[in-house]
Amino acid sequence: MIADEALIEKAAGLLQACRSAGVMLATAESCTGGLIAGYLTEIAGSSDVVERGFVTYSNAAKQELLGVPAALIAAHGAVSAPVARAMAEGAIRASHAGIAVSVTGVAGPGGGSAQKPVGLVHFGCASSKGLTLHRERRFGELGRHAIRLASVAEAFDLVEEMLRLT
């Protein structure tokens, strides 16, 4: 992994915020393929905050590891708000974390469509207290690497929002 120093700094700040709140964190990643967890665990001492990470790149993994219903994926597609929410909620159920963040999207360069273009990414963030947030971002065709890095930053922002709300 080629590290982005700004993301490492952002990860360190997020870990401290979670630590201060006494919250463990889980990740459920599709298009980022573990980058969110990778940036978090780049920081020494992250094991007191990072509870676990799920890389659920395939639909089967989303179903088997996170309990995302096959019917939900069939109805909305893997890259959708309902699936992002279900991924985050599933990560809460399948972990001991207080907050879970999820990401599913089209990083490109192929795989996009008129309805779901390259750069479309859905984020979910669930709390063990029952709150679930969602964000949709359309990063455009920045290139696969840039879309994935932008997704990591957005996921960190969403966790920070959840910390403020809970």
TrEMBL record:
Pfam families named in the record: CinA (PF02464)
Residue span(s) of domain CinA C-terminal: 13-163
Protein name as catalogued: Nicotinamide-nucleotide amidase
